[in-house]
């Protein structure tokens, strides 16, 4: 997989996830208000579903065999596989993307490590939690391999027994629902799409909806303890530095919305069911739309691998322009040739040219005269696209010989990309 294909996949995924986030930023509040916090939180499945949709297998251009080197005698023109001498602009963009992802991942790792070191030694408590030596950012659920609830050093003195139990249940609900692993997935998406500000905005709102949904789950179990639950929120010291892979009791700002939510009665089972169905339809529809909207992919299932790739029958060498040959000008043109099922070129375009615009016309004129054995797929010849790199070497032959041009046959397998027509 080349740089162009990787970057194209990243761009498609960024567009799909960005559109999903934009939709959620508009819908999250109405969904919470009508159907409850749990439905608002469930709607965030829209983002990973849209991401997976653009990664699903579908008909796409498939790399084939590379061309072998073939010198056409007496022309000074060489056909050979493309092998860039230096880093192309696409390679540079790929490096920048990977570097940005790595830097953000390092930042999250350092942030996680700093928080863990700041906790000090952890002591096991009789209630199954672990007690830290510090207070900042606690209580919190943390640990992907061994999830646990960590409480502050003054947990017993700051909170009543009723509040302590409610807070422990809050963090344990996070663990049971897999929120720690979900948050790790959010951090991964932020690393992959670090260049998209919507992903970082979405992460903050996602964590807020996550806390509201967890609050709602605790209040639904203990509706008579709403006041104690709200007082526990007010007594909690907010983390100065959020834990990327954890769940803080007091992560979300402002607390006003969380406390306001405690006044609302839980939504009925019927309304929650209706909300679940609507969110399911929304997620499924958006996923299908993201898959169908991918550029260059027909709305059909992926076909089988080709039984043979396009083979060159006759590649007549491009005529070396006399004035360029006499002036000793060399260059390279990489053509993309669309071939129909009969092996006849139907469209030729220049992918790259060095120097630009100098040898393009000569290469294109020659390409329309070429003939190929077409690619065979499922026993039938099909249309395909072939990449043909051509070198114009003024030093390979005397200028007058190169300028005369010549005819040659190149019975070689070309670097081929299949496309469905």
Summarize the structure.
The chain is built from 14 helices and 16 strands.
Low-pLDDT windows of residues: 59-76, 80-85, 297-303, 397-421
Shape: elongated
What would you call the quaternary organization?
A: single chain
Number of strands: 16
Mean pLDDT: 78
- Give the helix proportion (percent range): 40-55%
H and E string: HHHEEEHEEEEHHHHHEHHEHEEHEEEEHE
> What is the percentage of strand-forming residues?
15-25%
Supply the number of helical segments. 14
User: N-to-C terminal Cα separation, in Å?
Assistant: 23 Å
Helix/strand/pairing category: alpha+beta
Rg is 31 Å
Your description of this structure?
The protein is α+β, with helices and mostly antiparallel strands and 421 residues long. It is 48% helix and 16% strand. The chain contains 14 helices and 16 strands.
